[in-house]
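Researcher: Re-running this chain for the archive, since the previous output was lost when a drive failed. Same request as before.
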Amino acid sequence: MDMKAILAITAVGISAGATQADESALVLGKSTYGALCTVCHGDDAKGTGSVAELFAVKPPDLTTLTKRAGGEFPFADVYQVITLGMEAPGHGASEMPIWGDYFKTDALEDRGVKPGDAMYIAVGRVLSLTYYLESIQE
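Model: Regenerated structure tokens:
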């Protein structure tokens, strides 16, 4: 099974029970956000990162995902966008990186990590980041 299929299945399964992540998942998610996402989305996650003005499509305010989805955090959608990137038809090309592949490659660079284990590490990082984003909703 390829990475896209595994990550998509995981997102669907997890979204049904995505209420509150434990503290360690939030810490990892916040750390990942700080290291990889702030340059575009900003420290405050409002789309005000240092390079945001360079994009044709401005990075969105990530603190209003729940509000824009009608009051329920769109866990599976957020997970999928982080994992597979996104397309914005009619709104120009998206600059959103495909983080699922990055996380898998990053895990494989660690000595002794097998490809199957790298997949689980990537899933965990995406889940942690998604839980963190859920935790900062206004």
